[in-house]
Amino acid sequence: MEITPLKDGDLLRALQSMHDLFLGADADLLAEIDARVCHGIVGYWSRFLQHAIHLRDRLAAQGLDRPVLDRTFVKAVLQSMPATTLKRKK
């Protein structure tokens, strides 16, 4: 079975049901992340989320406030991800 990439409202609903971190995020920011790195592929979003949660928890362990998903935090998440994280498996 092949699953096609999600778009627009379908993608937004899927992300918001995936994790609370996406609930408060700006829809335009989510669309920008999708256009740049995730391309509607839920597996890519899952990897992005794993890195975001890990980074958020690391910051919290250092006594810093847990960040929200904004442009600054997204940039930090993307920088923390290995280049191969969002490559399609063949």
Keywords:
mainly alpha, 0% strand, single chain, 90 residues
Write the layout of secondary structure elements.
Blueprint (H helix, E strand, L loop, with lengths): L7 H11 L1 H4 L3 H12 L3 H20 L9 H10 L10
Could you please describe the fold and organization of this structure?
This protein is mainly alpha-helical. Helices cover 63% and strands 0% of the residues. The protein contains 5 helices and no strands. The protein has helices spanning 8-18, 20-23, 27-38, 42-61, 71-80. Helix 4 (42-61) crosses helix 5. The two termini are 15 Å apart.
Using the CA coordinates, give the radius of gyration. Answer: 13 Å
The fraction of residues in strands falls at under 5%
Biggest pleated sheet: none
Overall mean confidence score, pLDDT: 88
Compute the number of helices.
5
The termini sit apart by 15 Å
User: So what's the overall shape?
Assistant: globular
Helix content: 55-70%
Sequence stretches where pLDDT stays below 50 over 5 or more residues: none
How many runs of DSSP E, i.e. beta strands? Answer: 0
Order of helices and strands: HHHHH
Global structural class: mainly alpha
